[in-house]
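Dear colleague,

Thank you for sharing your sequence with our group. We've completed the structure prediction you requested, and as agreed, I am returning the results in plain text so they can be pasted directly into your records. Please verify that the sequence below matches your submission; if there's any discrepancy, let me know and we will rerun it promptly.
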Amino acid sequence: MSIIEKSQLIKNQEIKARDNVEKFINIIDKKNNSINGFLEVKGEEALSQAQNIDSKIASGEKVGSLAGLVFGIKANINVSDFTISAASKTLENYIGSYDAAVIENIKKEDGIIIGITNMDEFAAGSSTETSYFGTTDNPAAPGHVPGGSSGGSAAAIASGMCDIALGSDTGGSIRNPASHCGVIGFKPTYGAVSRQGLLDLSMSLDQIGPLSNDISGIAISLNTLIANDPLDCTSLKWKSPDFTKALENTPEDKIKGKKIAICKQFREVTDDNINNIIDKQIDKLTDNGAELVEVSFDYIDICLPTYYLINYVEFFSSTRKYDGRKYGYKIEEACGDEVLRRIKMGSYISQQEFSGKYYKKALQARSLIRTEINKLLKDVDLIVGPTVPKLPHKIGEKLEPMEMYAYDVLTVIANLAGIPAGSIKAGQHNGIPVGLQIQAKPQDDYKIIEAMDAVEKL
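Please find the predicted structure tokens below.
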């Protein structure tokens, strides 16, 4: 059954919220030791919340739209009374003293937080191998990385350990692991979801978003996650649509007449085996009435350096609070190699004599990329293509930093441009999932949900 069907059955008392939680606790008990998707689980508290929800339903009280649905939360999003470590020794003893805005919204709608998921340390990575608490395995391709940095959230969904998981996406950190683990991940328009309570990687690029095994889980969670927040200066004042309405009608009705763009440069940097799988999905869309448009994006070569230069500087700035005085350890003395690399690079680039040479030029390049992407989207509804250009490597396989960064070449574009983007399973090669990425204009998130629903049903 879909997430939205389960939600309705809980509200109709045909399924108990407590039974839903117990099922996930049992799965976590069986699987998490080998997968390492969750860093912390509070089953008793989740069962107590579920019991309260069941009691409210039984007595005829109104419950929220997420009543009884079970969430896993990435370890860089504040949840009161959970360890919010960002998968780093730096914060291994930090207990969340408040709820992030997204957590407040989930709890208001009676969603149940069962635990905290693993990630790359401070979200600096694309494989979840940089976690201080150990690597997460890929349930869909055991022995391979699950992607990152939200690898624990994707693995928790792929292994059936929760209904919905939250991740953060700075350059593909929701979509990359969604692709590798064969689940659905969605990065909303920048500013659509409050970042209040998120531990920054790069504040001008970060966005919180959901992962789920079916598109209805994405839709129902977006209805709660997308909300204006006066405490977040980047928050949009947007009267967003009811995303569950995007699940209505037939795939043909959603796709017919839509202009769907494919970009030759995206194909050129992608493994042929992945392109072949993506082509089959695109053929399904055109067979059902979509109009295919070929476009060119001549700036793909500058996207990664632009992204990482901005990332380094903003990450360095955001980590200055981890000085070991107020809480945690001094980050430079406790962190892993990748985090330290980014701090050192950010420190170097931030120096006055270099900021104009690197950081300011990167900001100019981002403006150019945003302008060009918006031009491409001006006359089309969607851009479709591969989510990541290569299959996930095996756990423990040594990659140079630039090889690891190459996973992000197709996903950083949406963050640099501030547009919405999602990844949904397109197929698999040698048993390893491959994701289809769908991108749209700012605040056209609804169109992506419609398209992903069509792909799922087709």
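Summary note from our side: The chain has a mean pLDDT of 97.

Kind regards,
the structure core
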